Amino acid sequence: MKKALFLVVLVAVMVGLTSNVMAETVTVEYWNLFGGGDAEFMDEIVAEFNASHEDIEVDVTRLEWGEYYTKLKTATASGNGPDIAISHVTRVKELADEGLIVPLDELGENVGIDWTEYNTNILSGAEINGEIFAVPFDTHPLVYYYNKDLLAEADLLAEDGTPKMEGSFKDFLEKLKSDSSAKYPMTNWTKLTEEGHYRVWWSLYSQLDGSPVISGDEVTLDKAKAVEAINYMKDLYDKEYSPLHSEYMENVNLFRNGEAASLLTGVWITGTLEATEDLNFGVVPMPQIFDNRSVWADSHTLVIPYSRNVDQEKREAALTFAKWATDNGHLWAVAGHIPSKDTIKEKEEFVNMPYRMDYVKAADYVSFDSAGSYTWSIRTEITTALSKVWNNQITAEEAVDQAVTGIERLLSR
Amino acid sequence: MKFYNQLSDRYPFLKALPFLLPFAIVYFIFLIFPIFRGFWMSLHRWTMIRNMGFVGLDNYLYMIKDPAFWESLGNTLMFVILSTPTIVIGGLVLALLANQKIKGQLFLKIAFFLPYVLSVAVISSIMVYFFQPHSGLLNGILQSYFGVEETIFWLGEANLAWFVIVFATLWWTVGFNMVLYLAALQDIPESFYEAAEVDGATKLQQLLYITLPSLKPITWVVTLLQIIFSFKIFSQVWLITGGGPGTETRPIVQYIYETSFKQNSMGYGAAMAFAFFIILVIVSMIQIYLRNRKEV
Which residues form the signal peptide (chain A) (predicted)? Predict the structure, then answer.
């Protein structure tokens, strides 16, 4: 009995001692939603940060992509949220409206964040009613990858290794189809129920200067422009420039094994393509089809979830990490993403990386589709309507009407 | 302690109480309480994190007028109608096959049952790889060896998508029904068949007049379980077709999930979930009623 008591005391003393030591370093609980290659690069960034900061320990928790926001929101609301978390820029308004994240203007200045260093286009997505709610970390627009060997077969490769697009984009694809050995001139993610279509549609709609889908509680979709964008895409599929119904990895693999001559997808796939043997590829920003160069994109940002007991020291430590991670954006660019700070784009480490400089300008063209709490639902409504057009069930006009009716129903709930 | 003993002598249920309590508490917290909580939520406008105010039966009125609710409920019913007979009969046929006194009988049993131990994520990935249009296994085989020219969009057309979903579920879960049937087959006394053989009954007659009638009770159990499993359809559809094309294979559970967690409307999601719960209670009551009548 005495022995047991002695042990208990010993353990208690040890716990007491260790927690004293711990008190000197601030532990920052950090949640993210990365998977695959992204996750590994992020872990390396955290490891490097921890190694270079003795007083701060960032503790990463990686959550499943599909469940991420459900968990982040419910945990934060019940007071068990992390100290810092990744959020897509298109989710920031929703989180801010719900009061789940805190404004960062002042906090940022305390740790020396200079907001003017960030790409203004990306930063504007994180700004709500004049207050900044998120530290932009990257942006990942759609870009256009092409197989140099297959383009050369059709005499569509310029001397500097870029695609020769003299006529329209469809002329280019037509020539690629007839004169190259590729089975498909292009591929994009066309599984009917997935967002792939929507991303291309949003890019085209934005290139036509389309208005936001909703403003406040009102649907403000520009129907004529929406129809024009749909008809353009319908033609791409009807002429078999891009195969319909392809699963995500399937469409990437069609490009990797040379069956498709080009690939329209997000920058995140650069790392995967680089690791593909015998693939001689290049990349440019998404081609301009209509009036301007807009392109669908989203951004990863770092946000500070609301907590009842404000621990200033912890928040500053968390933002120190955010600042450090964005200051060292070239580490993250390895995954393919475009860094959020314009200053990184001059860093040697970044400039020397292949491919990244070819699409870095796309950051200036990105167009975010954030519609507050409705963003997700609107994407789903439009994706569903689009898929019915591809399946020849309804016309483009009917699809737009159906999407509008669906969105109005959402707003009335 | 003495007091408790005296008391429990008078009220015998007190003796049972400590044994029942642990289960009862868990059952209450995880089953009974959520039912009432869900009903309570369905009477409010409720986002993922907070109660936005009482709205009475508005969510239910919205539901009745919501075409997406009826479509997804119809899809779930469609799946029940398609899958229940297929998987029940499939289980019976496989059990009869595996029950033959032939070589490799053990191998058959294992082969039929094996997919059941896989998780839904695994079988769904296999199915997507098998049925995807441009580099899928099935289209590859059809195009290379059977001279099929066009690309068949297994997941892109409603009828084919239904076929894929039912096929995937059949392959995945039929082993469970087979095991239940196998157990029942072992219970039929060998003497029945011997007597039939002496009387000159053919194998077919033995099957029709001995085997099948003896399997009637287990068929009720299997059908009952299958109908309830089928009503709960969600994961394999979510992972294979995503409810598509469009929303043509989207089951009610998926719609409830999307509404509650993706569209941030827990109140409306709860209303639909509660309505679905009532439907299931009615279905179960009909089944129990029919079975009791049979037994009488």
Answer: 1-23
